[in-house]
Fold each of these.
Amino acid sequence: MITESLSVQERERISLMVDIASMYYYEGLTQNEIAQRLGMTRLRVNRLLQEAKEQGIVRIEIVNPITNSAEVAAQLAALYRLRDVVVVPVMGDESMIPVALGRAAAKLLPNLLKPGDRVGIGWGTSVYEVVNAISDDHVFNVTYVPLIGGMAEVGVHFQINEFARKLAEKTGSKWKSLHAPFLVEKVETKTALLSDSVIQAATAMWSELDVAIVGIGVSISKSPLLLTSHFTNVHLIQMERQGIVGDICSRFFDDEGQPCDWDIDDRLVGITLDQLRETKTVVAVAGGLVKKRAIRAALNMGIVDVLVIDEETASVLIKDQLRKEVR
């Protein structure tokens, strides 16, 4: 054990072991490279690394990702009272997270869907990857419906009618299109759109959904709201003042899961948070530490029933919640 009684020479030796271990394990330098940098032999570097392990300066942890993921999933489900959690170990950079989550969610769907189900589809990167990953080996015989109006000339992650069409095509199912913009200029315009019988055929299903598959958004900078002339700097200021951290289907909320108070909700052609809350099973597919606050807020709202998340973000959520409960 390191104590205040260490001599100057012992402290210098420990400091040297810490420096060598940092170069070896954090910077990825070889023992030869470390030896050249510090002007010593490779053999001495090797001995100091071994000594660092023996003294507990270096601790190596071996984790079984399968076992650990199951434990993390069970703990997260218990803490947030979720029906089910799928935790996915993700190797590599964060750009791989949506792909891994999409594959995991796609494998989950055969156990969730039954013939005749009405299935709502949200938009975003993770939901897009679910659509890509779904196998055409399964015939679900369900009906898919977009949960929000669409936008022309935007990225593939927001082509929500196409999501529904592809899912139906792959799984031997039906789909309802929603040919309406997701945001309009006036409330009167929205009222007129929702009175159209073709549009009503889709929106009427929002109150009768068996399953909803949604993403959790984190940054307004990636929202299609910015691409509309109906979203202004005033709205950005409103979001800043209210501490908005995330959204589901462009319904924005703060850290406590309280919805954003602004006029956009009245002009948005999309499912409401209350309708999602009444849905039998809401599957949220979201991950990455950048979304930690947004995911936590969404879970606190009590809307999400099944969560598909990466292991690192799940572990951080658990630690934060346990720390909060101790206070």
Note: The two ends are 30 Å apart (CA to CA).
Amino acid sequence: MRFAIVGAGAIGAFLGAMLARAGEDVTLVARGAHLRAMQEHGVRVRGEIGDFQVPVTATDDAATVGEVDVVVITLKAHSVPAIAASLRPMIGAHTSVLSAQNGFPWWYFYAQGGEWAGTRLESVDPGGLISANIEASRVIGCVVYPSTSIVEPGIVWHLEGTRFAIGEPDGSKSERCRRLADSFIKAGLRSPIRTNIRHDIWVKLMGNVAYNPISALTRATLIDIVQCAETRALAVAIMGEAESVAKKLGIEIGVSIEQRLKGAEEVGHHKTSMLQDIEAGKPTELEAIVGAVIELGEKLGVALPNTKSVYACVKLLEQQARHHELGPQNTTRATSRL
């Protein structure tokens, strides 16, 4: 199969390297020093899965790639609206789009039926930019479980995990899903085809909506959060609020909050993606992970006081970071009265 992986950062480069090593035709779309390193040296993978290096085709111009079988979007969710239109040259009559972002996906209410059919959330598809450029019928849902990071340009550290759960929005086990899963499995990845991919999305989201903002605010790792009584209690409260939203949408999580706490403790000193973004001075996936849950809660009449509190604080943290990056526009002189 011919793949284009758009936003080939840590997860995208890891996936691309695994597929390329297995003989698939892969083009990585990236930018900056990471792109240049991959063009010169290929992708170098280190860590739990072993050490290997594989040459890849990499570019910063999606228009030069041509039509592919699968466009894999591994960009952070907030970056997708701005690049959605640029994907069109890669999309042919039978191209699938694998949506592999954290958080609540823009296509969630497609092919679901019921009273929420066709609902668009402004938090994940602002102005409808994504849905206007990518037909929802092309989408295959994906929940990404590997933990990876870029330790230097072109070098990906693989901490753990090889699972990419995939599923059709309508719940069918389609031929395109089977072909995609076969390619992933041949590459040494786990790729179960899920008949209710929305359930998998919520299982992951329930942890992310708590751990990501708390870690961004405290700079704490997962084990730090769950071993501090106060932040543990806050995480429990936020996960409970998210679970209430999921239930209103007909999703039974099936994984207890206590199990989620235990799982986070077992992962240990791992920095969430939101904390990594904050430390790198990058925008976070706040809207897709937390804002979407709040928007849903407002539509469904579910109170989310704890979720809204951490959302507000991370929002301010991002605004302050942007202000600092741009530099002060005004200088205020304070005087002291003694």
Note: The mean pLDDT is 93.
Amino acid sequence: MGLIHFPVYNKNYERIASAITTLDIHDLARLSKTYGVKRLFIVTPLDDQQNLARRVLRHWIDGYGAQYNRHRKEALELVCVVPDLDRAVEEIKETEGEAPLIIATDASDENDRSMSYEKARGIIQEDKTVILLFGTAWGLHEEVMKKTDNILDPVSGRTGYNHLSVRTAAAIILDRLAGAI
């Protein structure tokens, strides 16, 4: 799983790097551990943001937090901070011996590479190597989308309102893709 902080859009549809939130790191790591995700990549080229994430990880993996909450340590050990998507893909290739299928998430349903949850779940159940990308801020920039193989159908509620936090969307999506039926 990859949480992309650059390049993403801001509310004015400009290309930006978004700030890392420690809550995303904690919650997405715990979600990843729960659903059997092998690695959670936090993707940002910004040194200060990488340092923030690594400081949080050190505290919970090697520091006082490791003794305080072993469950949190187990989850946060899945986190890897990388400067870009290409580095995440390279790490997956090194570990798995093959390039992953890159599946993006997007709140919009206006794309020509749409993939249903059923199809994505089938691919995952076949033990195919996959990286599932989540965007921060106002979503993944087209530069990232061009590198993807498919775009997962959006999470849709009953009201037409569609502005979930990345943690909420990730929980819904992972449950649909990897949860017990």
Note: The CA atoms of residues 59 and 65 lie 5 Å apart.
Amino acid sequence: MKKGAALLIAILLTGLFLMLAVFSSRIVYNAYNSVNAAWQREQAYWLAEAGLEKGKQELGRNLNWYTDLPYYLVDNVAWLVRFSVGEETDLGEGAFKIVKEKGRDCLYAIGSRGKALVVLKLTFAAGSLRIIEWREL
């Protein structure tokens, strides 16, 4: 009878340790995914910043420069990401797209890295490059 009890205890302890291993591996997996998502978002943000800088250079050379015709909805992120015509540039493991609508005094930059996406908007004074507002959409 003692051999059977020892075997039962060994089986229960093995099952307990397996459950602990599964739970701890799940915690590590979730932590890794969270850190990776935050890292990709940070990279997408800096790619969007690079896009704004490139767009400011283009506007510095030509204040009438634009990439797309005006869209009737202002700050429509879905349109900016999917359908707008812009200058796209790959940089490292990510990319950015610059969108400047004709006749509007704002510049958009969309940075993307993996599943992360950041849209930045720069509003400037008409006829100059004096920045009025910078924000994330």
Note: The chain has a mean pLDDT of 93.
